[in-house]
Write a structure and sequence with these properties.
alpha/beta; about 10% strand; globular
């Protein structure tokens, strides 16, 4: 039943739940929707969220809490651009930050022209930044990041340790990453995601990255399911999906399976017992007097 004609069955410990989120509306989205050439403007370098974008973040945050996702998500992974960082901390961050010397904020007050108070890192999942889930690289200034040292000042409790270079060495002014290169980077990200110990992970990223990465999946599904997987994301949209280890990449044992009565041989299943009885009956007839 694995040919797309019906439901598939997989062991739970070989599955991982991911909650994919596109960042909220950025200042580049507003002008870019009117004129695509706006994405070429240096004015939108590392574009931050708009006031409407922050309202979208607030709405998604309410959904994440009302649905119970806030209690289930073990880790948040975000692209290291200011619009994704703002979305990640706004949706998944802690409540009501107060100045405490022993607790770093996820975001300092007014980071990225937000006009908002600092966001707490208390009682929320860890948030780490990964270059692998960045937007389409090159040419568009809105997709170029700042130095990591600047982000560390604005987002003190986010973990940037996976990023090796302070400066943006991936973005080039005159070379645009191809769709195929982006999809390959996306698959590399998904493979890395599988190596994480966490079973329920949120990923805050970008429209182009999501579309070209997810388009590589679902070819063994019904066309409607394939379309559902890879259709373009709206700003601040969240979709929950399952990734499955079909090739035994993972080796973690199940945390919920239980072996049953021990020792097992004293409690044979009926079909096994019937087979054993039948075999013993046959062996008793294979003799001569």
């Amino acid at each position: 039943m694995d040919n797309g004609a019906g439901p598939s069955l997989f062991p739970l410990h070989r599955c991982k739940t991911i909650h994919l989120v596109r960042h909220a509306q950025g200042i580049h989205n507003v002008e870019g929707d009117k004129n695509y050439k706006a994405y070429m403007s240096p004015e939108y370098f590392d574009a931050h969220l708009t006031p409407l974008g922050w309202q979208q973040v607030h709405n998604l945050r309410k959904h994440v809490h009302a649905s119970g996702l806030s209690k289930r998500i073990e880790l948040v992974i975000t692209s290291p651009l200011i619009r994704t960082l703002q979305t990640a901390v706004g949706v998944f961050g802690g409540e009501g930050y107060t100045d405490r010397m022993d607790v770093l904020p996820l975001m300092v007050a007014n980071a990225g022209n937000s006009g908002l108070a600092a966001i707490s890192s208390l009682n929320c999942p860890p948030i780490i930044a990964s270059e692998l889930c960045r937007e389409h690289l090159g040419v568009h200034p809105c997709d170029r990041r700042r130095n990591i040292s600047e982000y560390q000042f604005l987002f003190p409790a986010i973990d940037f340790s996976l990023i090796e270079s302070d400066e943006d060495t991936m973005w080039m002014a005159n070379v645009r990453e191809t769709n195929e290169e982006l999809a390959a980077r996306g698959l590399k990200f998904m493979n890395w995601l599988w190596t994480r110990k966490e079973k329920e992970i949120a990923v805050v990223t970008h429209s182009g990255f999501l579309f070209h990465t997810l388009n590589a999946f679902g070819n063994d599904c019904h066309p409607v399911v394939k379309k559902e997987i890879c259709k373009h994301f709206a700003n601040c949209e969240l979709r929950s999906m399952i990734i499955v280890d079909r090739s035994m990449m993972g080796s973690d044992p199940s945390t919920t399976n239980y072996p049953g009565k021990i020792p097992a041989e004293l409690d044979l299943p009926s079909d096994v017992a019937d087979k054993k009885l039948h075999e013993e009956g046959e062996s008793n007839t294979n003799f001569t007097v």
